[in-house]
Prior knowledge:
The protein is mainly α. The chain has 3 helices and no strands.
Amino acid sequence: xxxxxxxxxxxxxxxxxxxxxxxxxxxxxxxxxxxxxxxxxxxxxxxxxxxxxxxxxxxxxxxxxxxxxxxxxxxxxxxxxxxxxxxxx
Length: 89
């Protein structure tokens, strides 16, 4: 017997409709195993995208660290104000 978690099914339909611009009626017309294959492919694609994002983030961090060794020139120090003694009357 086939058991389906309805909440998970609805959530999956929502994500597919939102991210891939597919109408819910099109998903309802699918045979259930087709829908399961789509879910597997979407999850696989999401994991690959996450892996790619982590690699890009790592490259970005290494580039940032590489440029951080470059020191910016210091601004010249302003001369201090001379001390003036004012006579008291």
